[in-house]
Amino acid sequence: MTQRVLTGITTTGTLHLGNYVGAIRPAIAASREAGVQSFYFMADYHALIKCDDPDRVARSRLEITATWIAAGLDPERTLIYRQSDLPEIPELTWLLTCVTAKGQMNRAHAYKAAVDANLAENEDADAGISMGLFSYPILMAADILIFNAHRVPVGKDQVQHIEMARDVAQRFNHLFCPPDAPLFVLPEAAVEPDMELLPGLDGRKMSKSYDNVVPLFVGGSKALKEAIARIVTDSKLPGEPKEPEGTALVQLFDAFAKPQERAAFRAELRAGLSWGEAKQRLFDQIEGQIGPMRAKYDELMAAPEKLEAILQQGAAKARALAGPLLAQARQAVGLRSFALPLNTGVSGKKEKAALPVFKQYREADGKFYFKLNAADGSLLLQSAGFDSGRDAGQWVSRLKIEGASVLGSAPVQKAADDASIAAALAAFGDAA
Ligand code: TRP
Fold first, then answer.
1. How far is CA 202 from CA 110, 205, 248, 270, in A?
2. What's the gap in Å between 83 CA and the centre of ligand 1?
3. Residue 348 has pLDDT above 50, yes or no
């Protein structure tokens, strides 16, 4: 079966090396695999959440398109498009919004971080937070589910969003589709194992908000060199042995080097290579790989009408796939043609089946426990003992509301396979 691989980049600002290593490079590598159909898009609706400067959004989506193509994406082999050219995406977003628990969105990292920042400043918790920011993960779920993508290459910071997309998909399937004919595929995040978060110049994650980025193409080799010069190192002198492990400089080098080059670089630093020399090696290493792409990038930026034509074509191909899936989703939720008899959905409403149950109880040891049984009575989850019944009860409600996404942190033992447990937990969303 063809694997569908999909990834998007929010079109705010200019791309940096972290975007290249974390998203673009792995995605392009994946697009060249046999048996893969790949989807790349400019997440320009997502950009509106973070950016209120229209000219910057406009410029950024052009730059990012040029970047993907310059970095080796082949518009003939793959689908490349702008999110905002597909009206199917916001339409599906609404259908998904209606099956998403608000409580789950409250726990999205990006939203929580914004709330925490407000509280730290003694502001109202939701000050300056738009509904766009709050609902961001649902739009992202629609991006993925509209093509039933199997695999989503993302940075580690996006993994929670993919898990939310899975939950939303599962919930939609559970509510509206027969068990043997789910509409949505449950997507998987694909995180580059080696370099999950590329460090920036100061060793923290490379991010525009930390002002520690290395630009990818913009500013030419000069800007690359200047950024590398700003990488923070210790003050060891030339000739003094240096500890390579954990330094931002070496981690950046690793992201562009083969295993034997990595080992050689470490050995040189331990033998006293100066930081200045080391920065020159790093520059050569990166420039060797991105220099040729930058030339292509400059050429494309000078011919925006070519890029426009490529994206128009991409949107037409993408819509031909998205349309039929959206039509099925509309059918499933009951938005059907009046010309059809009333009970002909894709699914029809399922019989109300017996439901899984949580049982709470107290044992002879005085502790409080709960367990989750499947509809057929078989055991799915067994909790640890709690000192108070309230704690046990709180976990039961979290499991009911948030579903399988909290299993990792819940004090429970699994007594069945993950899929059965997730399906049982999804059933509680119905009552919520
Ligand atoms: N949220 C992602 C980011 O900021 C971009 C994105 C939007 C995305 N929709 C997506 C990534 C769908 C993968 C799949 O990096």
1. 22, 8, 7, 21
2. 11
3. no
CATH topology of domain 357-427: Double Stranded RNA Binding Domain (3.30.160)
Query: What angle is formed at CA 132 by the lines to CA 128 and CA 135, rounded to 5 degrees?
Result: 115
CA atoms of 300 and 307, how far apart (whole Å):
7
The reply to whether the predicted model has a pTM over 0.85 is no
In CATH terms, the superfamily for domain 3-193+303-332 is HUPs (3.40.50.620)
187 lines ligand 1 (CB under 6 A): no
Predicted confidence band at 432 (pLDDT cuts at 50, 70, 90)? very low
Residue with tokens 């998203």, as numbered in its chain = 23
Q: Where are the domains of the chain?
A: 3-193+303-332, 217-300, 357-427
- CA of 153 from ligand 1 middle (Å) equals 9
Ligand 1 probe mutation, 4, 5, 6, 7, most atoms within 8 A of CB: 7
Pick the residue with more confidence: 156 or 138? Answer: 138
Mean pLDDT estimate for the chain: 91
Nearest atom in ligand 1 to 9's CA:
5
Task: For domain 217-300, give its CATH number from 1.10.240.10, 3.30.450.20, 3.40.50.2000, 3.30.70.20.
Answer: 1.10.240.10
Is the alpha carbon torsion for 245, 246, 250, 254 positive or negative?
positive
- CB of 158 closer than 6 angstroms to any ligand 1 atom: yes
Q: Tell me the average pLDDT across 216-237.
A: 93
Residue nearest to atom 9 of ligand 1 (CA): 140
Each residue of 267-321: pLDDT tens digit? 999 999 999 999 999 999 999 999 999 999 999 999 999 999 999 999 999 999 9
Choose the residue to mutate in 80, 83, 89, 143 for probing ligand 1, maximizing ligand atoms within 8 Å of C-beta.
143
234 and 245 Cβ atoms separated by less than 8 Å: no
Q: Closest ligand 1 atom, CA of 136?
A: 1
